[in-house]
Amino acid sequence: MFELENFKDNIACITPSGEQVSYGELQALTARIISNLKPYQLVFSMCSNTIGSVAGYISFVNNDDATLMLDSHIERSAFDALYQTYLPRYVWAPKEFASPKGAENIFCEKDYILWEIMSNESPVSDKLSVLLTTSGSTGSPKLVRLSKENLMSNALSIVEYLNITANERPVTGLPMYYSFGLSIINSHVLVGATLLLTPSSYVEREFWQFANDNSFTSFSGVPYTFEIMKKLKLWKIPMPTLRTLTQAGGKLSNELLQFFIEKYEPRGVKFFLMYGQTEATARMSYLDPKYSIIKLGSIGKGIPGGTFSLVDNDGKVIEDANEVGELVYEGANVSLGYAECADDLMKDDENHGCLHTGDLAYRDKDGFYFIIGRKKRFLKLFGNRISLDYVETFLKEKLKECVCVGDDSKLIIYTTDIDYVENDIIDFIVTRTKIVRTVFSVRHINEIPHSESGKILYKKLNID
C-alpha cells in the first residue's frame, strides 16, 4: 500500500529533537522490521507520535499483517484484557513498555522493541489490515475491522478533496490510534509529504514552536481542540505557513466555526469541516470552505467515491428535501465489520460497503446534509421524544459549556459554569421543549470528561 520508494529523497518525518528521516531511510527501516515478521499475523502496535511508531505501522500494513492500534500509555489492565482476548503473535512497543508475558525480544530500533510470542496463534483473514477500538472503548474487546482497500480508498479520497501534495507538512495534534489521526498519516505518506511528529500537546508552547520552526502547513482537531484553542487564545500565535485547518470527530458549534473562519480566513487559511466514523475508516463527508457560512451547520456532501442517503424507520429511502431520517453511507471505505473475540479476526466482509451511521439527518434542496442528533441520544419524556444533542445545542445560548444525559424519566444538564441560576435554565428549556419542568435538573461539574481524542465520555456522568 505504501510505496515509499517513489519518494526516497523526500523527508518523511521530522521530530522535535531535530531528527529527520527520508522516505528512502524509512523504507530501509521498514524492510528491517519486516525481515523479522511473518505475514498474516496479529500485531499489537503501541502507538506514539514518533518515527518508530510510524515505521512499525507502515511495516505491518505492507507485510499483510493485521495490526491493532493502541495507546502506548494504555492502562496495563486494559492491555492485558485485550492481550488475553486476541493473543497477538507480535507486540511493537516503546522500550519503556513492560514486556508481554512469554515474549521474546527479536528486534529493536528507534526506541521500539518487537516482541514475539511464539505460543500465540490467532489466524487472521487475508483481507484484514488494521483494527481500531470503537469510540471510548480502549479497554473494550470490541474492535472495528479495516481492510487495505478501506485504508487506501479513504486516503485517496482525502488526498483529492484536500488537494494534498508532497509539499504538505501536517503537525500531529491527534493520536495514531484514533481513526482521524491515522487517516492524516495515511493520506500524507501516500503522496510523499512530511510528517511533523511530536508527543507534545497543542496546549503547550513547544508544540507550536516546533510546528512553526518546521513550516507546518496544516493542523487538525476535534471540537474540543478548537474550544480549548479559543479559550487559551492560541489563535493569536503567528502561523505564517499554515494553509489548512481540518475538523472532525463531532459537531463543531456554529459559533466556534464562525469564530475560527473570522480569525483564519484573512490569513489565507481554509477551514474544512468534516464528518466521519471509525466504521468508515475515518471520513465520509466534508464541507467545502466556500460554503462554510452559507451552509452553516452542514456536514457537506459525501467524499469522492462515497454517497449518502436517508432512510425512514421502515428502511424506505427518503427522497424529499428537509425530511429527517437515518443517514446511510456507501463507499469502499466502509469497514468489514466488528471483532469481539479472536475468532472474529477470520470473518469476511459483513458490511459490503454500506454503513447505517446511527445519526439522524436531513438533506436540503441543494443536497447538503445536516445532522440533528444520534438515534440513541433520544429520550421519551412524558410521551415527548427529545434529542439530547438538540438540548445541548440550544442551551449553549445560556451556558458556555454543558452536556446532557438522562433516561425516560429525567434529563440532567451538567455544566462547568458557576454563575447560572438553575430555575432560569429550566425555564429556558421548558419554553423551548414544552415539557414539564420537574424532569429537568442542572448540576455543576468541575470538568466535562473527555477521551484522549476529545470525545465526551457521557458514560462517566451520573444519571441517578
TrEMBL record:
Task: State a single Pfam family of this protein.
Answer: AMP-binding
Which Gene3D superfamilies does the record match to this protein? N-terminal domain of ligase-like
InterPro entries on file: AMP-binding_CS (IPR020845), AMP-dep_synth/lig_dom (IPR000873), ANL_N_sf (IPR042099), ATP-dep_AMP-bd_enzyme (IPR050237)
**Residue stretches making up the AMP-dependent synthetase/ligase domain:** 117-338
Q: What is this protein called?
A: AMP-dependent synthetase/ligase domain-containing protein
